[in-house]
Give the backbone structure.
Amino acid sequence: MTPAKWWLVCSECGKTRDAAGLPTLCDACQSPWLVRYAAPPPPAAKQALADRPWSMWRYHEWLPVHDGESPVTLGEGMTPLVPAPALARAHGVAEVWIKDESVNPTYSFKARGLAAAVTRAKAGGAVRLTVPTAGNAGVALSAYGRSAGLPTDVFAPKTTPLRILEQIQVYGARLELLDGHIGDCGKRARAFAEQEGGFDVSTLKEPYRIEGKKTLGLELAEQFGWDLPDAIIYPTGGGTGLIGMWKCFNELRSAGWVEGRSPRLFAVQSTGCAPVVKAFELQESRTTPWPNPETVASGLRVPAPLGGALSLRALRETGGGAVAVPDRQLIAAARQMAHTAAIDASPEGGATLAALERLRETEAIQADHRVVLFNTGAGWLYR
Amino acid sequence: MTPAKWWLVCSECGKTRDAAGLPTLCDACQSPWLVRYAAPPPPAAKQALADRPWSMWRYHEWLPVHDGESPVTLGEGMTPLVPAPALARAHGVAEVWIKDESVNPTYSFKARGLAAAVTRAKAGGAVRLTVPTAGNAGVALSAYGRSAGLPTDVFAPKTTPLRILEQIQVYGARLELLDGHIGDCGKRARAFAEQEGGFDVSTLKEPYRIEGKKTLGLELAEQFGWDLPDAIIYPTGGGTGLIGMWKCFNELRSAGWVEGRSPRLFAVQSTGCAPVVKAFELQESRTTPWPNPETVASGLRVPAPLGGALSLRALRETGGGAVAVPDRQLIAAARQMAHTAAIDASPEGGATLAALERLRETEAIQADHRVVLFNTGAGWLYR
């Protein structure tokens, strides 16, 4: 019998299990599982990347797919890394690059995590999928669920931008609008899933969205010629991308694919919903639910992220940090990204530029740094 | 002195000239120039593609850039080629693939042509850019003009979908709305350009948009392992992509990069504006201006394409054809693309699926064919 390519390890209590079926949370402590691979590919495997198809699945040795298995894919990943020399000059740093995740199927970074989660959910026997969403994850699940041929139910706050709600329905998902925030939608999604036999692909409630998001880190590494940047500013709602990149950089370093320290990871949130920033500043190891979360950056309206503890570890272990910016600043910065770098940034993407200004003031990011900002989705979805 | 990498040949009278300055149309006969390269790269150069940056500029030997010159780029190209087995079954053909050009900066195929045109216009000394547009070219010029640091004026029909008009303004272009169609906008753009010193990057009025669009063909070739598909269905407004792919496949065959016959190129238009289809059916060598052009597929509302004669040559030389489909069919087919292939197709993209049905009925496309449909832009821009 071939040994398994991967298994699961609880991020909190260290319990392990195999990957059979449809794993959700650790049955001992209800914390997220993380995927552990038996044999990371050797650095020589970099050479093989060249001839692979143009999607994140070209890194399949690092991802939860079996040899010869076809993933559910719409060509997600391989997004542009756009130099922004005018922003580098304006903020007095060596280099600024924008990783433009709006150039993805379904127009946001959510494509990566959902492609991975839907691939494994389908393989594990799911017959119906559901997700609570602050926005773009619902769009992505609608498309990937359709691509997998599985019916999909999406639960979103009534306050979600109208175009995101419209886009969720384009691919054919059933959409249910609810009062409250993503946490309230999560409760309804769980109840619905239990009642109707759906599988819930909420952030960190299954182990594979993180693996898809890990490709953000793999791509940065490859695009920079396996020489990682100094600092990454990432808009943090659920935190899957932050955790995914942290996991990715650790895996790449252990496997000898990259050398040197991990990039400093900086989380940016809105002052209207900043549980990770608050916990970081108070030196706590977990987040406290944010009362009355309010922000136009709907992807940041996550008052009690399940990945809060892991996000905080990612920030601290990499020597990074966390900043909150008011909505008016992140909106202005999104416009500035369009006008200086010709990128149609989402409010969340704009937040990273607003954060750069703050992090330069405090010298957390230094003049000789190579900095990456993440535009996580398309600006038009919020207009 | 190094010999020039490329020069220009008139597509009609065969006159040649060098590429200095800002070439527009042939000064002898007012027909479009085509780029001719001194030395196409040998097939062994395929190996070098692997390590190149992730954009259409990885094919730089085939493109109008000098060694070491930095193009104006937002990471355009390397778009997904998505298999659509359900559509292949439904239409009784061996394979259907959708080249999803909505996964581009500015959300359409126009990014390719405008990146090339703006790169050369800037290098040639242009200080201001202008374009008449049926829609997405205006969005692309707004972004690439901004990326090049050049002010941009866009002229569009009042009937252009509102979200396209909004998107043109996102990157900072000045937008002027006019009565009439793209031809009327072209007159105003020319007058404005003469008066204000702008350079007009209209379809085929300069020789480089075709070169950018050529990368559609290069990418298909590479994505299919240098084994070209049997048939390509392409929504044809101005025709730049059709002409670009025809030119590309001829260049690839002469250089020994691919073997065998060219893919059959099929143009699809709306029955509300079908000058290329009409001329093809009447076996004419040029198009006749279409009176009262009307279609929801704004990119197809081009009643008198400057590239009409070249488009007709491309269709005939490749053994392809041309079909017109009514708006209600192309709209329904766009919805079908979202619901079967999870691709948010534009009306123009939908038209290619409606055309497939027609081309199967007439057996112009046969059961053993590998067929590529082009989704040229994002559906949301039209809602």
About this structure: Chain A is about 35% helix and 15% strand.
